Structures are given as C-alpha cells and as structure tokens.
Amino acid sequence: MNSSSIITYTIIVLILIGIKVLFLVFPVRLTAVDQGTAFAWKTLIAIVIFGGIGLFLSPIAGIPDLWDPTVDNFHRFGIPILVGILYGIITIIKDIRKPAEHPLAVDENIHLELPLSIPFYTYGGIFLEILLRLFPIPLLIWFFSTLLLRGNWQTEVFWLTAILTSLYEPMPYMSESIKAKKYLEATGILISPLFIANVIAALFLRAYGFLAPLIMRLSFYLLWHVIYGGIFFKPKSQRMSH
C-alpha cells in the first residue's frame, strides 16, 4: 500500500465525515429502514476501520493498489463509468415499465430529493463499496487462501466471496419471494441486473482496484437516484392516477 493510496483513502474518509456533519445540520428523509444505522457515528467509525483493513490486505489478496501503475485510467475509471451508466439505464427502463418496490423502503418514494441527494448517495456509494467489496473480499481471501490454504485456491476463494457479497443487496427481494412461496422468482433474482452488477463490481475490484467498483456505483447512483430520481421519478400512486 503506497502513500498515494493512503492519501486517497484519507480523502474518502474525510468526504464521509463531511457528509455526516452536513446531515447533522440539514437532516434528510431516509428512504430505507436500514439507512439510519449507516449514518450513525459508530457505524461510520467501524466502516472507516474496515476499509483501512481491506486496503492493507488488498495487495496480499492479489487486488491492485488504488493507484497501481499497471492499471490505466480507462480501466480504473472509464469502463466502470460506462458500466454504471448502462446499469442505470437498464434500471430506469425497468422502473418505467414496472415501478420499483424495495422491500426495505419506508414509503413509495425510494429516491431522495435534490440537492441533498448528491451527498446522500455519495455517502451511500462509498459506504456500500467498503462494506461489500473493500473489506470482506480481501479479508476472506487473505484468511482462507493465504493463511489457511498457504497461498493456494486464491481464484476459487475470490469467486466464493464475490458471489456471497453480491447476494447482500438482492437478499431482501429473495426473502420476500421466499415468504410468498415464489421460489422460482427467488432463484431468478440470481440472474437479475442487481446481482450481476454486484458480481461485476467484485471483478472490477480484483482486476483494477477499489476505485473501479466505487466509480461504477457512483455513476449508477448519479443516473438512477440523482438525475432520474430527483428530476423525472414519480411515486407509483401518481403514475396510476394518470
């Protein structure tokens, strides 16, 4: 882990803290029941520590440094931006055809209003990518492959961790389908854009370093939550009334 990565991660941490302080002054409407926990000081401190651990373990786990010289900026930023935008377009088209219903949403408006949606989803994007990618994947690869298996089976352990972490976001949908005894629908979520996008983000982490999946998520959030959600989105009840 070089000094550039440490400086970059420090900037990311300062952004998180700055947004947290901003929302102490300007409270926001939470769009999902678990978001309050994500914005708590204890959770923020924990995620910062977790991210630091993941950053330290990344080179050991075969994951490129944040500014690895072998990774060019087109792969580090360009491709993730394109994939994030494509995922955003797919999500918007799906929502236009059938309004999104998140199982953890507090009301039918799953988006936050502008302009506070910009820092809100910036925080959320950084938080989730540390939680789902930067911390667990390097940690589990280090623990199982490096420590227990003496450096063997690194690729196999990566795929296992990539799949497990990619299930986190689709899990509420799967649980709802299982409760309704819609088992085919539950398994079908494994080929949904949500799950596939998470797997791609894990692949970006391993191939290009942490900034790649982070940029991919922020690009997606910009299109889906900030632009579409803040300008064009209408709650389901408003759509049905037209």
Structure description:
By secondary structure, this protein is an all-alpha fold. It has one domain. It contains 12 helices and no strands. It has helices at 3-25, 35-38, 41-57, 73-97, 117-134, 136-148, 154-166, 171-179, 183-188, 193-208, 211-232, 236-240. Helix 1 crosses helix 5, helix 4 (73-97) runs antiparallel to helix 10 and helix 4 runs parallel beside helix 11 (211-232). It is globular, with a radius of gyration of 18 Å. The relative contact order is 0.16.
Q: Which tags fit this structure?
A:
242 residues, mainly alpha
**In angstroms, what separates the terminal alpha carbons?**
56 Å
The tally of strands reads 0
| Rg calc | 18 Å
| Helix and strand sequence | HHHHHHHHHHHH
Q: Multimeric state of these chains?
A: single chain
Which band does the percent of strand residues land in?
under 5%
Tell me roughly what share of residues is in helical segments: over 70%
Biggest sheet layout:
none
Q: State the helix count.
A: 12
Please, how many domains?
1
Shape, principal axes of CA atoms:
globular
